[in-house]
Amino acid sequence: MLFNSIEFVIFLPVVFFIYWFVLNKKSSYQNIFLLIASYVFYGWWDWRFLSLIIISSFVDFFVAQKIQKAHKVRNKKILLTISILINIGFLGFFKYFNFFVDSFVEAFAQIGIHLNPRTLNIILPVGISFYTFQTLSYTIDVYRGKLKPTKDIVSFFTFVAFFPQLVAGPIERAVNLLPQFYHKRAFEVNKAKDGMKQILWGLFKKIIIADNCAVYVEEIFSNYQIYPGSTLLLGSFFFAFQIYCDFSGYSDIAIGTARLFGFNIMRNFAYPYFSRDIAEFWRRWHISLSTWFRDYVYIPLGGSRGNNFNKIRNVIIIFVVSGFWHGADWTFIIWGLLNGLYFLPLLLLKINRNNIGITAENRLLPTFKETFQMLITFFITLIAWVFFRSDNVGQAFSYISIIFSESLFTIPNLKQLIFVPIIILFIIIEWFSRKKQHALEISNLPKTIRWSVYLIIGFIVLLSFNNNPNTFIYFQF
């Protein structure tokens, strides 16, 4: 079920009404209902794949209990390995089986041996990368002693399948979200209002910005051979805002929806395109995944400790794995590797944590230095996004080679320029909102102005609402 669909417009208020006005006596009833609603929400896409979520939930629920009871470290490690193998096994089969088969066949073809591949018509279950990492983090935290395993199976299953963030995150940690299912939740008007505002802003970003950018991106990337470098650069610019508004829009809707039901889930984006270096960008982009890889992969590998070889190795591993998480294609691996190469100089020079605070925190405008840093960071991010968006590696390199040709200094196609002022307006709004969780936190404005803003944005979203909505980009991951 899509957030930007008619089905969800009906589903959400029905679930909200039953949750707060029928089942408000006991949190256990609310949890059971949320679990059923979450399975309906996911099963709307394909009921068959509910079995994967249920199996993953059963495995990690019982493995965590056994880990707690095990006295020997060896036994704990065996149990953790079982959880990892089952969860990563599901993920690897559905997401990467054909990739490895095709790569294996292609490798042999390079030395003159031609094999007949047997690939399967495998459907990728929506959200499998997200809920797999969420349930894995629970078992790992229990193994590390950071969390006691729960005996409340309903709460745990609901934690894994919680519908606002089930399909595309944020990837929550059990230490934050799971305890919220144990306690009675009281309806808070202000919390619900803020949730509605964040949902509205998320819909605006998805429907108005991302979906309109998608039209230009598809046109330019599909016909990149006939356009000059200036238009191709504009195409990567459009894609940067398509993927940002698509994914952060989903996160806004997820966070806002969770707040409607009395839950707080983690922030996933913090205005990443105002970053002054690539390290800051990755602290602000897809925060739940970046911190997951940091805590469960990068730090166990040794992090930034040790000699330069170890530091370089760990950075490359973490970024390549991050790229591979996004998809079974060499374009994603190169995208991850490229970001790792961007990051390495900052780490080796020990300046990767120079930009921790908000850009121009106590000023209206950035300094010349900050502006230059943001532009450089944004530009190298655009180049990396070309690999992310391209159908194959050859297209990506060809696309980039045209960007850096003499045609870069020509006037872009005027048809594509029409939407640029809308994006510039969006950037300005984001700039003045950079200290806030989302752009509709405008309680400091007079009531008349606030409601005018809400109504105008709501009207624009309603006017653009489509009976055949565009899916979210990260559903494919």
Summarize the structure in words:
With about 475 residues, this protein is mainly α. It is built from 18 helices and no strands. The protein starts with 5 loop residues before the first helix and ends in a 13-residue tail after the last helix.
List keywords for this structure.
about 0% strand; globular; about 475 residues; about 65% helix; mainly alpha
Average pLDDT taken over every residue: 90
Helix content: 55-70%
Strand content: under 5%
Uncertain spans, ≥5 residues at pLDDT below 50? none
Radius of gyration: 23 Å
Oligomer: single chain
The gross shape turns out to be globular
Largest sheet, described in full? Answer: none
Query: Alpha-carbon distance between the termini?
Result: 16 Å
How many strand units?
Answer: 0
The arrangement of helices and strands along the chain is HHHHHHHHHHHHHHHHHH
Helix tally equals 18
Helices and strands: which structural class? Answer: mainly alpha
At a glance:
It is built from 18 helices and no strands. By secondary structure, it is mainly α.
Question: Which SSEs are present, and which pair or pack?
Answer:
Elements: H1 6-22, H2 27-43, H3 50-69, H4 73-109, H5 128-144, H6 153-161, H7 174-177, H8 189-222, H9 229-260, H10 278-284, H11 287-301, H12 308-326, H13 330-348, H14 368-389, H15 393-403, H16 414-417, H17 420-432, H18 447-464
Helix pairs in contact: 1-2, 2-6, 3-4, 3-5, 3-6, 4-5, 8-9, 8-18, 9-14, 9-15, 11-12, 12-13, 13-14, 14-15
